[in-house]
Amino acid sequence: MYSAKIKVTLRRSILDPQGKAVEHSFQSLGYDKIKDTRIGKFIELKIDASSETEAKKMTDEVCGKLLANPVMEDYEYEITSLNGDK
Amino acid sequence: MYSAKIKVTLRRSILDPQGKAVEHSFQSLGYDKIKDTRIGKFIELKIDASSETEAKKMTDEVCGKLLANPVMEDYEYEITSLNGDK
Fold first, then answer.
1. pTM greater than 0.80 (yes/no)
2. Using the beta-carbon criterion (under 8 Å), do A62 and B26 form an inter-chain contact?
């Protein structure tokens, strides 16, 4: 069993209105030293794969097909082995 | 200048309907080896702080006040120094 932790972020060139709104709230609260706020998704899942290679392959596939929009978003992930599988 | 990368996740005891919906889609696509899908937020921001301690303090404050719901969510973050500040 493997655990995948995936970060999906908007590409730098794409405007992030949600991040802008949060940044505006920071400023209203007096945190004017915070900037470049960008909001993305964080996805955790468990994969019952027989090898780390298979787990990586499956993670790449679901990121490309479902979790990230390949036109607007980038993703990165970490795979860790649970219960000592290799 | 420091960069903060924050992960906000729903507590384990809280039902995650968005994660369940995504998991259902995985199964429709034939990925039936994926389970325990949980969806959270990933936030990146830059902090113009004079020390890493100040950057951490500010990150903790904005997470507690704005980014995470302390009743339902947990957060963790990493602070990294940009342009070689300590």
1. yes
2. yes
